[in-house]
Write a structure and sequence with these properties.
The chain has two domains: 394 residues, MFS general substrate transporter like domains (Growth Hormone, Chain: A, Up-down Bundle); 30 residues. The chain is 77% helix and 2% strand. It is built from 21 helices and two strands.
Length: 444
């Protein structure tokens, strides 16, 4: 990989600051914050999936360019509005405002403008990072981001375990707000390449949908997004609201996942450059199907060992998915990139809002239900999670149809490379046949 430019170095720092507050919008941390504001399962489902749903508004990115003039200026302004909205969280906690509607509106504002940040940033990175270096660069970038994420997750879990609930939530939201502001400052120093006026003001999304190669990718994206968004918040909801698992323990499990991911990111980065993003993504999704099964059989008595297994498998699964999914998107799109990113965002957004509404509807119904299968007790939320398992497998099957660079991964070892082992089998086989025939003759 060539020497990094100043912007790409700053992008690594921005990723670290971003992950420091982003981890608090995920898993048990955001569920704990949401429950503090008395949010219902349906509201939790909406705020969990809205970042994906909001991606569909990326089709209006040209209007953002037209309104603010340049790509760089557009990026900064939407960052100030979107990420800056998180500053409101510690303020309403300090004022003792525990209104779920206000909390949901803040998170929606953050997600809505975050989608424009994503679109502009993705298009810029495609131009700044050469194709042959993307796996290594983003692998390295994710290592540093994950390291900060590990530390932040551990700190958040400790704060959430404070006897004084308000103080714990205040500390978590204050740190979120601080790092959100830091990312805005770092983005201000990025040198973002500009685009020509024609592509700046026109977004021909129809062209992207007519691209046969990209169509196949979008079908996979739709199924995968539906599978994830249907059950996204309910893994953590099951942990916190139903099993009442200590947040310190959950934080330790997240640290284990983060440390393993830290090692895997550069490893997967090299593998994706060698074997292709699609091959590594298939491995990741295959491993991601394990988590729903673990949660389906999880109880008050075995959750510790199963969460440990989940933390390990999730690290192997999501390190591969987080790294290669973005790269596979870049690999399947053509110029102008904004058209394809917007088409991808529209597909993800529509699917996400449908999935989150369905998930929220069933979540409200099943939250207090229990079922018995062959005498074994299951919580209603576990049935919803099991549906997610089936959908993840269905998405994996569709990924095989996506056209992308892939090199078969073959296992090489002494066992398979030693021809004498197979020679012995060839020599021994007739002996077994003779013995078998001999027994038959004796019977006759």
């Amino acid at each position: 990989m060539k020497k990094l430019s100043t912007t790409l170095k700053l992008s690594v720092l921005e990723a670290m600051a971003f992950n420091a507050f982003f981890v608090a919008t995920q898993t048990f941390i955001i569920i704990s914050i949401a429950l503090y504001f008395n949010a219902s399962p349906f509201q939790i489902s909406i705020i969990s999936s809205f970042p994906v749903f909001a991606q569909m508004f990326q089709v209006f990115t040209p209007l953002i360019y037209k309104l603010f003039g340049t790509r760089k200026k557009s990026l900064i302004i939407v960052s100030i509005i979107g990420r800056g909205s998180l500053v409101l969280l510690p303020i309403i906690v300090l004022l003792n405002i525990r209104n779920s509607h206000i909390f949901v509106m803040i998170m929606i504002l953050y997600a809505f403008f975050g989608t424009f940040i994503s679109n502009i940033w993705t298009a810029a990175m495609r131009e700044l990072v050469p194709f042959e270096d993307r796996g290594k660069y983003f692998g390295m970038r994710n290592v540093f981001a994950s390291a900060i994420g590990i530390l932040a997750t551990y700190l958040y879990s400790q704060f959430l375990d404070f006897p004084n609930e308000k103080m714990g939530i205040l500390l978590v939201t204050s740190i979120m707000a601080l790092f959100a502001v830091i990312t805005i400052i770092l983005l201000a120093f990025h040198k973002i390449p500009e685009i020509c006026e024609t592509s700046q003001n026109e977004l021909k999304i129809k062209k992207a949908f007519q691209d046969k190669k990209f169509q196949t990718f979008l079908v996979f994206v739709g199924i995968w997004t539906f599978a994830i968004e249907l059950t996204r918040p309910y893994f953590s909801y099951f942990q916190v609201a139903i099993l009442h698992i200590n947040t310190t323990f959950l934080g330790k499990m997240s640290v284990i996942t983060g440390i393993i991911s830290l090692v895997l990111y550069p490893f997967y980065g090299k593998l994706s450059d060698r074997y292709g993003n699609k091959s590594i993504l298939m491995i990741g999704i295959s491993l991601a199907t394990i988590a729903p099964l673990l949660y389906f059989v999880m109880t008050d008595y075995n959750y510790r060992s199963l969460l440990l297994l989940d933390s390990v498998f999730s690290a192997f699964a999501w390190a591969a998915i987080n790294l290669t999914f973005f790269n596979l998107l870049l690999e399947t799109i053509s110029e102008p990139a904004e058209n394809y990113v917007a088409a991808y965002a529209l597909t993800s957004g529509v699917t996400a809002i449908i999935a989150s509404n369905i998930g929220g509807f069933f979540g409200n119904i099943l939250k207090d239900k229990t079922f018995y299968i062959l005498g074994d007790k299951y919580h209603g939320i576990q049935l919803l999670i099991f549906a997610g398992f089936l959908l993840r497998i269905y998405a994996l099957l569709h990924l095989t149809n996506v056209e992308a660079y892939e090199k078969p991964i073959r296992y090489k070892s002494w066992l398979l490379s030693n021809p004498s082992l197979f020679k012995r089998r060839e020599i021994s086989l007739p002996i077994y046949l003779k013995i078998f025939r001999g027994k038959k003759l004796k019977k006759k």
